[in-house]
TrEMBL record, chains A, B:
This is Acyl-CoA dehydrogenase. The keyword Transport does not apply. InterPro entries: Acyl-CoA_dh-like_C_dom, Acyl-CoA_Oxase/DH_mid-dom, AcylCo_DH/oxidase_C, AcylCoA_DH/ox_N, Diverse_Acyl-CoA_DH. Residues 78-156 form the Acyl-CoA dehydrogenase/oxidase N-terminal domain. Residues 161-262 form the Acyl-CoA oxidase/dehydrogenase middle domain. The keyword Glycoprotein does not apply. It comes from the Bacteria. Residues 460-560 form the Acetyl-CoA dehydrogenase-like C-terminal domain. Keywords: Flavoprotein, Oxidoreductase. Residues 278-440 form the Acyl-CoA dehydrogenase/oxidase C-terminal domain. Its cofactor is FAD.
Length: 567, 567
């Protein structure tokens, strides 16, 4: 079942949720004319459908492999990457002064969604690369930008993010890689990094690694960390002392090489610092916030693909007559109530997650254009978009597999691949638990709570015209007040259920807005209304029940000691 | 992390939920003396830990393979099977008159749980075989029983169930395999079956296939189906015309050969009928009901294993200091509130599902011993145990993967295998959607609703002493009344959310009972109380929100036409 880019849906959400016209009214995003937006959505859709999507299943089977010559990508990936670069798809949101098109991030997100739906493993490569562009564009010197950005922007080169080490996962501050200043101002880098996505591959001539390391005598924890440009090949063309020793054997995203990277084993790995010593986490966080939204988007991507496949299967698989129907002829299973419930749930969750992620992404553009409050709103929404978006990706992929019945458990149908691929997204770029902790420790207090209060007020206003939201809006507001006065342990114990409630409430508000805007004829609008109603009438009422977990507090979790967990 | 059989927990649930002492008081189950029960729980646990568990990860890697000599199981499986047979583990619940030990099914279920935790793929072989024993013991002639049962009971031979054909999955009545009566009273079998678990393998000398087929001129649908014994080797030792042409490439349970089976391609496949023509579904259903409980049990098995692995990881993985703690030293992640929340949720769900499945299994024994009402209760509980038990298996395996963070996505830790293996259980032995349909179409009306009413009354009584249950008990009772008067479409549209509510309410009742019984010192009872409280205080309150989906009805699902699902 071929992937079809959901252009009408993306356009609808960009118009009615992201407010793309408002964003394009800013001088900075003048390039985003209606014609350009339409051309990009259609063109990117066709590219994803025609070039990336056909490589998804074979890419999963072949996987990326490590050979004596380095990491080899699956057949067809090199040609597809060349087409991607030549099509200019890598440069959409990059700043015009560095050769990019300067388009809004939220529009680039729609394109990234297509790539992820078509081929999640492949789409990680440009996603990480875009993060490196972002970091260099914001924090690099003019010289560094001139040296590295042009080819990173086009996609002739790619970039990576190097944070994790065996003992430093969620706790980035525990990393031990070192960077020692050389007489010429550059640094000698030494250390091992793990879980480096697209850390080595054969798509391009050069890979620009952004590596976090610690300078001698630096402070403990994250304050002592600096960020370095460590190219595979230096500006003079000499190979750097950096290599990939192994690829991980993963549950999914097999075509994406997840590398163990060694820097400076021969004592000859050279890097340049970005910003000053000790400023690495700040620079990395500018990459990570955008990356977190992009990972939330992966949940949308995989949910969209899984839904399309399930609809396709349910329309073609004939099995059993409708219960109670006059005809005893078997029907396509989409006709059976519980299958239809699963499909509508998939549609509703996917649309809700897309609305939330685009809404968050649009705040990044509004902030860049100087709109007041947008930066804080983006910061508040980012953990919701990342965690809930990726949870939804897993749930929808699992429902999709279930719709397929026995065929879903067989790898040939693809449903199982979506299920496997989706499962990484709640883990990387900060586990969803880390997102929840971020929400309750840093984000609720933004602008002394005003950012949250404004969002809650908008949810309450939406509830006034969409009654099913009312109970949830009240529960979330009450729990937010409770969290405000709670101990750090209680806040953390409550963090995940509270995040889910707030995310569902926000998505519910956005679905209510879409329902209001979805007046008119035709199958797209009919399905939009049905999905919005399903979300409001059936999914929103599931969330208030999480409130019991918020107020239950941390103490019961510690009523048993660690050892009793083995009993 | 080695598997450790949860003997104390199993013993507790057998005592306080299954009422094993009451069951053993029946003459029929006199063999189940306290000493015997203890010896079996301990011995089976040791066997599962020592023999089946070490083969789990290597079995997943090697998988079952089809060679020119037939299906080859992974290294070590043949020896492990021999040890299993020699230990007498296959014959626990088989009738004494056929060489079995005549022990209660619920005790055999505890053993089956261990085998499934240790090695889910392997455990399918005895599980299916036990079903064949059940069908032959109940419906076979004395001659058939003498010919096939002795070696099936010991495990020297194994049995299979052959229902599914490419066009006949959930709709068994659509099957087309044929059986034509021969002059000697036997039948010539012809047809292709798919998804046949352990349909061919190298563990034993003979495999006894139980095959559903249609006799010439038989009625359409399920009424025209008969059941046949089709041994790989006939009683005279001659090979039957039956072979496996392919194995499926599955998401998980790789060590379990899932076969495409061809019967009678040479026109020489001979079978014997079990019961009369047209009585096949009745015989198959006696196998299937027990098989459905055993599949619900697989959810418990995989949840137990995933929980143990996650606890192990969380106690050994050191990462980050406790937020707000005086010490800045990193701690084992089990110390972090959200990780602890996940682990306790895993414990609570696993214990809740175990209680529900054992409770249902104990009704089978009570029914066999002639207790009034037990048969109907077993029938009502079976779809709950199968569907909710397997949903819990998937949720807990997913949480377990999440606790592992990035390491969980790497196949080496095993967490990913549990996640993959768990996902088959909501599909086979009747998808969970089929279970939900069975609940609302056949089971709610058992004894004119009296079976359900008695269960609801017990839940309400438990709610009186466990207040968090009260809201759910009311919601379930209200929804049950609504369903009673609802159209078939409305009932089916409501079926899945209603099944989940009723299952959580029933498990909640059983957790409340366990909480009352869990007085005393020591880590086991402390964890039992904590898990019961977590279930009642945090999981039960999630369920009433599903009520909105019950009463929302089917009409909104059909407000959009089939084609709009592609829009």
């Amino acid at each position: 079942m071929p992937y079809v880019a959901p252009v009408a849906e993306q356009r609808f959400v960009l118009d009615h949720i992201a407010g793309l016209a408002e964003i394009a009214a800013h001088e900075r995003f003048a390039a985003a004319s209606p014609d350009t937006v339409e051309a990009i959505l259609v063109g990117a859709g066709e590219f994803a459908e025609g070039v990336f999507a056909p490589l998804n299943l074979p890419g999963d089977r072949a996987g990326a492999t490590l050979t004596a010559e380095g990491v080899v990508t699956p057949p067809g990936f090199r040609e597809a990457w060349r087409a991607y670069v030549e099509g200019g798809w890598n440069s959409l949101a990059a700043p015009a002064e560095h050769g990019g098109m300067g388009l809004p991030f939220v529009l680039a997100a729609a394109v990234q969604e297509d790539l992820g739906s078509a081929n999640l493993a492949f789409s990680l490569c440009p996603m990480l690369s875009t993060g490196a562009v972002e970091a260099l564009a914001r924090h690099g010197t003019a010289e560094q930008q001139a040296a590295w950005l042009p080819k990173l922007v086009t996609g002739e080169w790619t970039g990576t993010m190097n944070l994790t080490e065996p003992q430093a996962g969620s706790d980035v501050g525990a990393l031990r890689s070192t960077a020692t200043r050389l007489p010429d101002g550059r640094y000698a880098i030494s250390g091992t990094k793990i879980f480096i996505t697209w850390g080595e591959h054969d798509l391009v001539d050069n890979i620009v690694h952004l590596v976090l390391a610690r300078t001698p005598g630096a402070a403990a924890g994250t304050r002592g960390i600096s960020l370095f440009i460590v190219p595979r090949f230096n500006a003079d063309g000499a190979a750097n002392d950096a290599y990939c020793s192994a690829l991980e054997h993963k549950l999914g995203i097999h075509a994406s090489p997840t590398c163990v990277m060694h820097y400076g084993e021969q004592g000859a790995c050279i890097g340049e610092i970005i910003g000053g010593e000790g400023e690495g986490m700040r620079a990395m966080f500018t990459m990570m916030n955008v990356a977190r939204l992009n990972v939330g988007l992966q949940g949308v991507s995989i949910a969209e693909r899984a839904t399309q496949a399930a609809v396709d299967y349910a329309q073609s698989r004939i099995q059993s007559a409708r219960a109670g129907a006059a005809s005893r002829e078997p029907v396509a299973i989409i006709g059976h109530p519980d299958v239809r419930r699963m499909l509508l749930r998939m549609k509703a969750l996917t649309q809700g997650a897309r609305a939330l992620v685009y809404f968050a992404a649009s705040q990044v553009d509004r902030a860049a254009a100087g709109e007041a409050g947008a930066k804080a709103r983006a910061d508040l929404l980012t953990p919701l978009a990342k965690a809930w978006g990726t949870d939804i990706g897993c749930e929808v992929a699992s429902l999709g597999l279930q719709v397929h019945g026995g065929a879903g458990y067989i790898e040939e149908t693809g449903a199982a691949q979506y299920f496997r691929d989706a499962r990484i997204a709640p883990i990387y770029e900060g586990t969803n638990g880390i997102q929840a902790a971020d929400l309750v420790t840093r984000k609720l207090g933004l602008e002394e709570g005003a950012t949250l209060d404004r969002l809650l007020a908008e949810i309450a206003a939406a509830a006034a015209v969409a009654p099913p939201l009312a109970m949830l809006a009240e529960a979330v507001a009450k729990d937010a007040r409770w969290l405000h006065g709670a101990s750090i342990d209680d806040r953390l114990a409550a963090s995940y259920p509270f995040l889910t409630m707030l995310a569902v409430a926000t998505a519910g508000m956005l679905m209510a807005r879409q329902l209001s805007a979805a007046d008119g004829e035709g199958p797209f609008l009919a399905m939009k209304r049905a999905a919005c109603r399903f979300f409001l009438d059936r999914i929103v009422p599931e969330a208030p029940g999480l409130s019991a977990q918020v107020s239950a507090g941390a103490a019961p979790l510690y009523a048993v000691d660690d050892e009793a967990f083995r009993a």
